[in-house]
Structures are given as C-alpha cells and as structure tokens.
C-alpha cells in the first residue's frame, strides 16, 4: 500500500501533487485532509498550508500479488509473478525453479491456491473478478491431457457398451471433459457424487 502526504496552498493542489507522485487517478485513491489551509491575519498569524494524506487503493492484481508474495516467502520459494488483467478476469502466471510443490497431485495444490486467492481478493467486493493461477503453462498442458483422456475413455465406453467412471476431479477439470465430448452422438456424460469426490460418468447411448 502506497501512502503519500503533501502540503500546498489549497487542498486541491496538495491532492494533485500526491496523485502526480503516485501516478494515479483520483478514483484510484483514498484522500484524507489532515489540515485545512488558513490565511494569515495582518501578519500576526502565519499562513497555514493544506496537508493531505493520499492512499493508493489496492486493485485485484496488487492484492493477488501481495498475498502470493507472503505465501511464497513463508515457503522460502523464489517465484516470479506476472499478472494480466481485464474487466472480468485476472490471470496470474508463476515462474521459477522447482515449483512442482505448488502444483501438487493433478493440480490439487494449484487449485487450492487459486481458490484461496479468489476468496481473499473478492472479499467485500461488489463485483467479483475471476482469478486464474497458472504455473509455466501447466493448465494448458493439463487441459490437452484431459481432452485426450476423454476421447480415449469415450471410445472405450462405446466399444464395451457400458459406463466408464473417471476418478474424482475439480469442477474446472470436469468441465473440460464434458466440453471435449459434448459433440459425440454415441455417448453422453454426467457427473455424480458430492464435492470433492464428484466424478464424471461416460455412458454409451443405447
């Protein structure tokens, strides 16, 4: 969080000086007037300048980065954090050495980290922003693996004429399976069970 205090003849001038130093627009900051300006009287009372405190608000990108830095510091991990933000979502790409610990088994640790950051950044916000955390292209590689698996198991279900039950997956990974097979007219998919043990069933059409 960046905080700047400035003095000037008027409150507006002091605020402008602070905004210039922060490189921010007025809507991106919180302004507190510490002292109102006053005029001297006949040279007996000195002129008092306006003094303001301007605080730069943390946006989703900054909040996510700060939280992740704290986590990585406690884990003694050296991680480079790059963020790409648009109106609806924030992509956080992590790079570094030996980051497998942050991915975990089938991405479970990465999903948990993403869930935690989403909760923290969107807390008390009127508009929620979807935050996706990736590590050196892992999610893209995992998506391709799941798409290949879906096609292979769909063929298996059709050939054997009976259901194929996949292991429990996150909602994000189940969506990849459903999407990969939604164009097939020889099988259909559905999910059953409760989180976090919800799984996909691939069933041949009779």
UniProtKB/TrEMBL annotation:
GO terms for molecular function: RNA binding. Its main location: cytoplasm. It comes from the Bacteria. Residues 140-206 form the R3H domain. Residues 5-55 are annotated as: Jag_N domain. GO terms for biological process: cell wall organization; peptidoglycan biosynthetic process; regulation of cell shape. Gene3D superfamilies: 3.30.300.20, probable RNA-binding protein from clostridium symbiosum atcc 14940, R3H-like domain. One of its GO terms (cellular component) is cytoplasm. CDD domains: KH-II_Jag, R3H_jag. PROSITE patterns: R3H. Keywords: Cell shape, Cell wall biogenesis/degradation, Chaperone, Cytoplasm, RNA-binding. It is found in: Cytoplasm. Forms a complex with KhpA. Has an N-terminal Jag-N domain and 2 RNA-binding domains (KH and R3H). Belongs to the KhpB RNA-binding protein family. A probable RNA chaperone. Forms a complex with KhpA which binds to cellular RNA and controls its expression. Plays a role in peptidoglycan (PG) homeostasis and cell length regulation. This is RNA-binding protein KhpB. It comes from Pelotomaculum propionicicum. The lineage of its organism: Bacteria, Bacillati, Bacillota, Clostridia, Eubacteriales.
């Amino acid at each position: 969080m960046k905080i700047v205090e400035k003095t000037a003849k008027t409150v507006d001038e002091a605020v402008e000086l602070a905004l210039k130093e922060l490189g921010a627009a007025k809507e991106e900051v919180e302004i507190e007037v510490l002292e109102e300006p006053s005029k001297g009287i006949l040279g007996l009372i000195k002129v008092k300048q306006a003094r303001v405190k301007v605080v730069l608000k943390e946006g989703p990108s900054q909040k996510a980065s700060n939280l992740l830095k704290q986590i990585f510091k406690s884990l003694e991990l050296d991680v480079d954090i790059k963020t790409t933000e648009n109106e609806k979502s924030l992509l956080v790409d992590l790079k570094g050495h030996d980051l497998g610990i942050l991915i975990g088994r089938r991405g479970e640790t990465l999903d948990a980290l993403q869930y935690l950051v989403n909760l923290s950044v969107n807390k008390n916000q009127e508009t929620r922003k979807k935050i996706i955390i990736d590590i050196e292209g892992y999610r893209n590689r995992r998506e391709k693996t799941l798409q290949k698996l879906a096609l292979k198991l769909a063929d298996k279900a059709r050939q054997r004429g009976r259901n194929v039950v996949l292991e429990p997956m996150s909602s994000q990974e189940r969506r990849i399976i459903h999407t990969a097979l939604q164009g097939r007219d020889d099988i259909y998919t559905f999910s059953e069970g409760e989180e976090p043990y919800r799984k996909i069933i691939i069933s041949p059409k009779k």
